[in-house]
Each structure stands twice: as C-alpha cells, then as structure tokens.
Amino acid sequence: MEIVRHPRYVDESKCIACGACYEKCPKKIPDTYNQGLAKRKAIYVEYAQAVPLKYRIDPDTCIYLQKKKCGACKKLCPTGAIDFDMKEKIDTLNVGSVVLAPGFKPFDPSGFDTYNYANLPNVMTATEFERILSASGPTTGHLIRMSDHKEPKKIAWLQCVGSRDINRCDNPACSSVCCMYAIKEAVIAKEHSGDDLDCAIFYMDMRTMGKEFERFYENAKKKGVRFIRCRVHSIVPVGDTGDMELRYVTDDGQVTTEIFEQVVLSVGLQTPPELVALADRLGISLTKGNFCKTDPFEPVATSREGVYVCGAFQGPKDIPQSVIDAGAAASAAGEFLSPARNTLTRVPEIVPETNVINERPRVGVFVCRCGVNIAGVVDVPAVAEYARTLPYVEFVADNLYSCSQDTQDIMAQTIREQNLNRVVVAACTPKTHEPLFQETLIAAGLNKYLFEMANIRNQDSWVHKNNPELATEKAMDLVRMAVSKAALIQPLKETALNVNQAALVIGGGVSGMNAARSLSRQGYVTHIVEKSDTLGGQARNLHTLPSGDKVADRLEKLAAQIEADEKITVHLNTTLAGVEGFVGNFKTTLAGNGGEQVLEHGVAVIATGGQEYKPAEYRYGEDPRILTSLELDRKLMDNDPAIESARSAVFIQCVGSREPERPYCSRICCTHSVHNSIELKRANPDMNVFILYRDVRTYGEKEYLYREARELGVIFVRFDLEHKPEVRKDGDRLIVRVIDHVLGIPMDIETDILTLASAILPNREEKLARFFKVPLNEDGFFVEKHAKLGPSEFATDGVFLCGLAHYPKPIDESIAQARAAASRAITLLAREKIHTSGQVAEINPSWCSQCGTCVSLCPYSAPTFRSPEERFWPGKAEINPALCKGCGLCVASCRSGAIHLKGFDNDQIFAQIFSMNEAG
Amino acid sequence: MTKDVIGSVLVVGGGIAGMRSALDLANSGYYVYLLEKSPSIGGVMSQLDKTFPTNDCAM
To answer: I want to staple A105 with a disulfide (CB 3.0 to 4.6 A). Which of A42, A240, A272, A741 is the partner?
Structure first.
C-alpha cells in the first residue's frame, strides 16, 4: 500500500506543545474542530487533549507558506521544531490486511435554501450545537445563540436533514443516530438552561431502537421535551430579531406557526466523495447509498479479500455499533493473518526493577500545569516551591503537560538521575492517568506502586475557578498529603498467572457459532455448549433476509463448518452446572447427556440468545390465521397455501414492545415485517397488505425496504399506545379495527393473515449471571461493561457477550458482535499470562478469628477458608489475589482488624489525614 | 490457511472504530499502522459533548 504523509511543518520529535507559536501567530482562521464557530490560528493543535499533542501548520492559511513572509513561529519556537521545508512524502507499507474505518461526513445543509442555514446565524447543525454544549467549545459550554449571545428560551430540532430524502438531496438512507442525538441534546440543553427551556423535536418517525434508548425517549417526554411529528418545510426569519418562524401541521391536521429563538438541524451521516474515490481505488463495491457493501453473514468483509470495514462507512451507525464492528473487523483481519501472529510485533524492553526496600524515601514531586487547565487558576510555581520544603522531597519540577510523551521520557530520566524512589504527580485524576505515570516508573526501573497522585485539576482548579488563592492553598494541601503518604508506600508484587488457552462459548446459535469460529480460526481450542439438540438457535425460525439470502442455507453452511472444525467441540443437550475460578483459569462443570464433565478454559463468551414473546393480546391463539412473525416465516418457508390464497394481510407492530411492562424497542420487528410485506406482495401482487405501526424503525439502509414496500402498495397506518388496533371475529371473518391517523375515524380491515410483530424476550439467565458474576438489567438482558466503549464484554474480566443475550438485533449485527466478543477474548488469550494487581487485600492469619464475615461479604468470592487439614493456619481465611479487586469491603468489615489493603494501609491513610490538618 | 501472509495491518481512519480495531489487533499480536488524515486521532466522537446514557464526556 502506498500512503501519503502530509507535512505537518512541525517536527513532532521536537515540539513540546508549549503554545508559544500559537500565541504569536498573527493569522486567525475559523476553527474547524469547533465547526467554524470560533477562531484559531494557522498553527494549531485541534484540541487540548489531542493525540499526539503536537502543533501543525495549516499550509493553506499560513502567511509564510503562502507568501514567504512572517515566520514568527519559527523565530519563537524554543526547541526549533518549525520546519517550513517539510515536503509531502510517499511511503510504501507492506501489510497483510487492511481495515477501513474512514468514518462519515455530517451532511452540509447549505444547499437547502428554505432552511436558510447559510444566512441565519441561529440555524445551526447538530454537530455545531454539540460544540456549543461542550465546556471546551466556543462558548465554554454556555448555551447561547450566535447572533446576539442571548440565551435562547425556545429551541427546535428538525430531524432527517440530509437523511431519508431523495427530493432535496440524494440520501435515501436513514442515518440511524439523529433521533437519539437530538433527544440527548435537548435533555442536556435543558440541564444547561433550566427546565423552562422549551425544546421541540420535529420528526417523521422516532427511531430509538438501541439499548436503553426507548427509556431515554420516554424520560425526555417526562422532562417536557416536545415531540412533534411533522417535517418542517422552511425556516423563516422574523424581521431582524434573530428569531425564526416554523410552520407545521399538528396531528389533528391544524396548520400552526410557532416562533423559535434557535433551530438545530439534525444532519445525517453520509460518505464524502473522497471516500467514494478511495473505494474505487481499492476496488471495493459500495451500496446505492455509497456505503461499503457487505454480506449479512460477513458484515465486516468488503468485496475485496483481506480488506475489512467498520464504523459509519459500512452504513450509518452509532458509537456502540461502530465499536462492535471495529472488534469484528480486527477479528476478521486476525483470522486472515493468523499464521503470521507475533511475527512483526516488538516486545517492549523490560527494565530491571531497583530494590528500594530499606532505603530512605527520596520523593520526586512533579506538578503539572495541564496547559492552562491547572496553571490558569493555581499558582503552579508556588506549589512547586512549597513542595521543595516538604520532608523527604529531593526533587521538584513543574511540567506543562506531564502526560505528553516527551515529558514522560524526561521524568523517567530524572527518576534515574536523581535516584528517586517515590514519585508524586500533582495533576489530574488517577482514574485516567495513573496507568500512564506508572508506565513511566516502570521505564525508570521503579516498582509502579511507588507512586502517588494528587488531583489538583478535577478536584481543585476546575471547581475553584473563581478563587485562585484558595485553590493554590488547596493544591499545596493536596501535595503535602500525597507526599506524606508516598514516604510510607512500599513496592508491591504482582502475581503472574497463566491464561488457559481454551475458550468456552455458551450458546450454539448464529452468535455462538460465529464467536467460536473466529476463536478457532485464530488458533484457539473452543467448546460450544448448547442446551438444545441442535445448532442454529433462533435463526432456524427465519425464512429469508432482506438481502434475499435463505437463512436456512447459510445456517447449514455455518453449522457444517463448525462441525468440521477440529478445534471446536460442540456439546449438545448440555447446560452449565457450576463455574469456579476466574479470568484465565475457569473450571466449568458441564451437565448433559447423562453425565458431568469439568472443562478448564481461560475465557467465556455468553451467547445465550433470546426468544419470541407469545402474545397475550390481539386474540393470539384463538384463530389459526393469527400468527407471530416467526410463525409467518415458517409458513413462508413451507410454501403454505394459506399465503398464496390470501387476499389481505395485516401486520401489527410493537406487540409486547414499547409497552409500560416492557419499555424497550425490539429493534428488528419493523424491518422484519416490512421485508415480509414485500415477500407477500411479490408472491401475490393483488394482496392488500397493511402494516399498523407506531414508528417505522427501518434504520440505516433498511430504509430502502420501507420505500420499496410503499412503492409496491403496502399501506402503512399509524396508531398510538392509547388507541391500539382491535381484533375481532365476525362469524368466520377476521377483522382488525384501527383508527386512521389522518381521518381520525375507525377503519375495519378484513384479513386472511394477521401477523403480530411480537417482542424479543431475553432468556433471563439468572443462574449464568450468578456463575460468572455478571449483571442482568431490569428487562433481563445482560449488562455490558460500557454502553458505548465496551459493548461486547463484561466488567468481570474474561467474560464476553454477544447476540440477543445483549439486546435484540438482526443477524448481521449479531455476527459482528460475536466476532467482536471473540476479538476482545483473543486480546486476553494472546497475552498468555496475566498479572494480578498489587493492590489487593491480605489477611494476617494470626489475627483471623475465622468468623467468616469476609467470606460471605466479598462480591468477587476472593476470601475462602483454608482447609482444616492444612499444616499452616488451618481453617483461617485467605484471599485469592487473582479474584480480589481491592475494593476494601473485607478490610472495613473485619472485626479482628486482620485484613489490610496493600497500598492503602492504615499508617498511609492516617499520615494523609494527619497532614491535612497541618496548615501550610 | 497455509498461504504466506504478512503479520501487519493498515487501519485507515483514527476515529473510535479505527482506534478500537487498531488496539484489538495490536493486542492480538499484529503490527498496526494507523492512518489518520487530520493532525490528531479521535474523529467525530472527540467533538461530541457528552454521550448517552452515561453522560460521560465524549473525550
């Protein structure tokens, strides 16, 4: 592959991001990071936390690069990093595979003349509005409008701008994310400006089909966000007030006008022309919406072998789905390159650890300015001077950005040169930065636990902005406390544990099989446990996919691959009887086929699936013509004559979903019904087909199906929760009554097939949740580690999640998540060894009274009793460091004071508390 | 798969998807080149204020 390196005009190895160049650069241009709402200079970093934190010169606006004049930055730069002679470079890389994650471009609404985006400053895009809400944005998070910096009292969001539109632009797809981000922006805007801020969202269908999205939507309604179903035609300025008039039609057909002080356009996601060109250069196919074409059973494979795709280039999607795809693409590339694993990676050099035990403490204190984040409020040099006076402090420095790579290198060098054996960093939060600084200690040959952090940013400069003097005093107090603890801390040992190289996948559906196949293809022995007598799960009940694929054919192929795979063992008719152990070393008892078997494995993937809700409503079960979606699929599979002879078919959506007792959207039913309505119309074009819906949620490129169905004559009738359709029998006739939302009058439809698009239910695997110590949410689905960033894994190490067990989703998304779960699992298996934390609880057995409080209390089952037969300390409690998370529950509850938490010992904590009271 | 392959991957794009993919690949034993056209990684997500449902700072 040939890649072009664009010149930065700043030498990355020299730039220390001091900002001297930025201060003096005379050229002011619109700040692209802030969507042009603020100004920046021609030399810039995109934002304060940018990685790498190195300046760049924009060659199109730099005065020197344009006219050979100025050059102020070059004169000023203390490290001589500016290099105006840098040239574009072409590098050739030899790679085994390519992953495309080039993203999307928000739609530019400038061309929509009726929206006046280009003319009215108070009409902005949702991306611009994100910057307005952001504390790091052009208004530092104050919700004000651009024309007069007034706080708006009424804000409107217009949905589907540049999406679901082939009239004013050529974007037929739904962008999937705008409904949700508009609601989020409205809720956050109300948090900023108070409850009296009037937020109105104008929409066509509210598409909140993600996990926990529907609840968020319902809560937004409760918080007073107004939802108005209407596509607004134009935004008209009201004189020169800066306000705008919107004209819309209410549900009952009344034309209304309303004045808003700010309008946000919920712009869609689209593929920019340069990506279309890139796809062409790479020879990969695109869809008609210009997204990367993939197969539902290979959701991250492009049309070219070895080239994979993830993120919004594959189709408009949100962050969790992008993260899932990213894992899937990594797994797919890894499967492709498996024979070459570890051939090109480098192992970091291990610096031997210096023994500091019995040495007098020599504390080094590094006070961070965090640019202006800390130094803008706290007098950093004064804090540094003060630190010099503290006991055991041998060295003090203040850093502009302690976290930058060059500062890290300098710190490691300083630790060695100054012979420091304890390090205190006064900066931001250990939550995000402790691991980074600990790496620096390791590089300097110090045990990483000889480190203490004082949070003088989040807990000081950020919260005491208006009181710099007291903030400086508080920073001194925090530093003194940290130093007093640091003097007492000791090096801690981490135990290395081998990771068993086998994997267990629970569930033999499409998700489970795909996870197992990915693990096996990357070289790991995998066991599938399936409770039924066959592989395939719910997919066995599906007829065809919108792509035209017969699910049964694809499923058969997949199952055949699994059965032929030598590394995969399938355990049918088997369930889990018990799980012992922990990440890297699980021992699971399998029960089935008349016996029990213990399996040792390093990781587990939960792919236990879901099930169809059997409706209690709409007379289900009273008439053979009333079916669930899966029962209709079965009839289609069997070529049931009832289908061909039917003159009329009705689908009722949201059966059991989006109801008070089940307040989630089942995500796939709209697409499923729309797809089947097309199948019915194709089988018999004269059939009258009706879909009764609340919102049509054919998100992403599934929107094409919705359009196709309408073109084929499928009739869509909307109803709301208060006026649900009624099903009755009149002799032999099956009749559905629904109130037409346009006419407002009841309409009777006689039907030969009534399909109830029933909800997807979780299996509520409470036993499994207990075995692996993983949570279920109130709906009964498993709760992932992080809704956005950890969708395919659990907070419990070594346990992963995919498919319907996580949330309802179609086959392609299930497969992507299965492979993502495998990818996450492989990052653990590939390490071969894991290190337990040094900060774990430890029991002094001579003080232990064997009361068992710790054993019963620990949420991670880390403490156990030693066997009464043991030679040393029989019957006393002990803690498994591999299971201990260092939470301290047992320490606080031990009535004998026998447990202590390493790194948080009593003397250390007391030293901190006592030094708090010593006025500086 | 017995064919000779090169144990490195080019990831095009340094947004949330590209970064996640690159990290997974690197931690699985493959050398990764991460390509980004702008001067820093992070993509569109870095421009967002907060993300649902945790209201975590998107940064």
So the answer is: A272
Q: Pick the closest to residue B34 from B18, B50, B53, B55 (CA basis).
A: B18
Distances (CA, A) of A855 to A773, A841, B55: 15, 13, 36
Token digits for A390? 């503290």
Task: Determine the Cα angle at A794 with ends B54 and B52, to 5°.
Answer: 15
Cα–Cα distance, A210 to A227 (Å, whole number): 19
Of the candidates A395, A392, A373, which has an alpha carbon nearest to the alpha carbon of residue A384?
A395
Helix (H), strand (E) at residue A783 = none
The residue in chain B having the minimum alpha-carbon distance to the alpha carbon of residue A2 is B10
User: Can you state the angle between helices A126-133 and A178-193, rounded to 10 degrees?
Assistant: 30
CATH, residue A244: 3.50.50.60
Q: How far apart are CA A184 and CA A169, in angstroms?
A: 26
Residue closest to B30 by CA, chosen among A294, A306, A275:
A306
> How many C-alpha atoms does A636 have within 13 Å on its Cβ side?
29
The count of structural domains within chain A is 7
Measured distance CA(A773)–CA(A861) in Å, rounded? 9
For A630-676, how does the pLDDT look when each residue is reduced to its tens digit (9 = 90+)? 999 999 999 999 998 999 999 999 999 999 999 999 999 999 999 99
- Kindly determine whether residue B44 and residue A106, on different chains, have CB atoms separated by under 8 Å: yes
Residue A795 lies in a domain: yes
Tokens coding A720: 């709301």
Whole-model pTM: value is 0.89
Please indicate if any CB of chain A lies within 8 Å of the CB of B30. Answer: yes
Examine the domain organization and report whether A730 and A633 are in the same domain: yes
**Chain B residues near residue A346 by CB distance under 8 angstroms:** 31
CB-based contact A198:A154 (threshold 8 Å): yes
Q: Give domain status of residue A709, yes or no.
A: yes
- Cβ <8 Å between B9 and A97: yes
| A795 close to B (CB below 8 A) | no
How many other β-carbons are positioned within 10 Å of the β-carbon of residue A360? 9
Residue B36 near chain A (CB below 8 Å) = no
Strands A262-267 and A123-125: parallel
For residue A918, being part of any structural domain is answered with no
A711 and A672 Cβ atoms separated by less than 8 Å: no
Cα A97 to chain center, whole Å? 25
A624 and A719 within one domain: yes
Taking only the tens place, the pLDDT of each residue in A199-249 is 999 999 999 999 999 999 999 999 999 999 999 999 999 999 999 999 999
> What is the per-residue pLDDT across A23-39, written as a single tens digit (0 to 9) for each?
899 999 999 999 889 99
Residue B30 placed within a domain:
yes
Residue A818 tokens, joined: 């299965």
d(CA A232, CA A245): 11
Q: How confident is the model at residue A136 (pLDDT cuts 50, 70, 90)?
A: confident
In a domain, B1, yes or no: no
CA distance A83 to A73: 10
DSSP-derived secondary structure letter, A615: -
> What interface predicted TM-score (ipTM) does this complex get?
0.95
The domain of B45 spans: 8-57
Q: Quick one: DSSP state of residue A35?
A: T
A15 neighbourhood in chain B, CB within 8 Å: none
**Which of A99, A215, A789 to substitute to test the interface with B, most B CBs within 10 Å?**
A99
